[in-house]
Design goal:
Keywords: Lyase
Order of helices and strands: EHHEHEHEHEHEHEHHH
Strand content: 5-15%
Number of helices: 10
Radius of gyration: 17 Å
Organism: Cohnella ginsengisoli
Largest sheet: 7 strands, parallel
Structural class: alpha/beta
Protein name: Amidohydrolase family protein
GO molecular function, one term: carboxy-lyase activity
Distance between the termini: 15 Å
Number of strands: 7
């Protein structure tokens, strides 16, 4: 079984976002020869994932804009009678107070199992994990929700404020140490600052790394080395589907040289423990 820790499906009202995502990253990341995802409907996406062994998929919320809103995601989650899809509240807001208000509003629904934030949305840009973020960390802890923070080098290269170093994960050390009970997931694994992200996770046992589609990129074998060495319980599998196809992401994980039992942990058990899902391993 597999838990995909980052994807977005064509749920009602998100269909244009899904269609746009099929080509978005292949252009930005110069991924040559990558065929767009063929599935178009939710049923097709589910069948495609289940054929590869996907048992659960985490949908990272984005914010309040129609076409990608928490309201639309909450309605979708409420309509489900299973836990095939797991939602994270999208706390993207230009203000910390706005992010906290969103967390409070949607945590109260009981429909979500985590919080997701793109730090570049906060304005003005402040260092990742800055003390001004503390109300966000406190709100996540209050509701017992892990926090996924999207970090990669491209985060600082898009938008009007170009700052390549903005996505360096070291700034999270203060928050991770100040809030040791808060589970912090670095989505995109903070690539290309791989060594820095690994060092942070080794030092802070509440930090998880989800390299998702960046496993296979230059320098990404360090994630594998870290998992084989001492982080086998804190690396998560994700696809970024439909930015890349399921088999593209899965093949990069399965082709690595993992120690015995490590890949099985990464594909399912680590995510299950984090999300409170059942698992059974000998």
């Amino acid at each position: 079984m597999i838990i995909d820790f980052r994807m977005k499906p064509p749920i009602p009202a998100w269909e244009p976002l899904f269609a746009e995502g099929k080509n978005a990253l292949s252009r930005l990341l110069n991924l040559k020869g990558l065929e767009p995802v063929r599935s178009e409907t939710l049923d097709e996406v589910i069948r495609e994932g289940e054929a590869l062994g996907f048992a659960h998929s985490v949908i990272m919320g984005r914010g309040s804009e129609p076409g990608s809103s928490n309201e639309e995601l909450a309605a979708f989650l409420a309509s489900r009678t299973d836990d095939r899809f797991i939602g994270f509240i999208g706390a993207d807001s230009p203000e910390v107070a706005g992010a906290v208000a969103v967390i409070e509003q949607f945590a109260a629904t009981g429909l979500f199992r985590g919080v997701s934030i793109n730090p570049a949305v906060l304005q003005p840009r402040v260092p990742v994990g800055d003390p001004s973020w503390d109300p966000i960390f406190v709100a996540c802890l209050k509701h017992g929700l892990p926090l996924s923070i999207t970090l990669s080098g491209f985060l600082g290269l898009v938008g009007s404020q170009v700052d390549y170093d903005y996505a360096r994960p070291g700034g999270l050390a203060r928050a991770a140490l100040a809030y040791p009970d808060l589970k912090i997931i670095i989505s995109h694994g903070a690539w290309p600052f791989v060594s820095e992200a690994i060092s942070l996770a080794i030092f802070c046992p509440n930090v998880y790394l989800s390299p998702d589609l960046y496993l296979g990129f230059p320098g990404s074998k360090l994630y594998v080395e870290a998992a084989n060495f001492q982080l086998s319980d804190r690396i998560l599998f994700g696809t970024c589907y439909p930015n890349v196809p399921y088999d593209f992401a899965l093949s990069h994980f399965r082709s690595q040289e993992w120690k015995e039992g490590v890949l099985e942990r990464i594909l399912y058990r680590n995510g299950a423990e984090l999300l409170g899902l059942p698992y059974s391993f000998e």
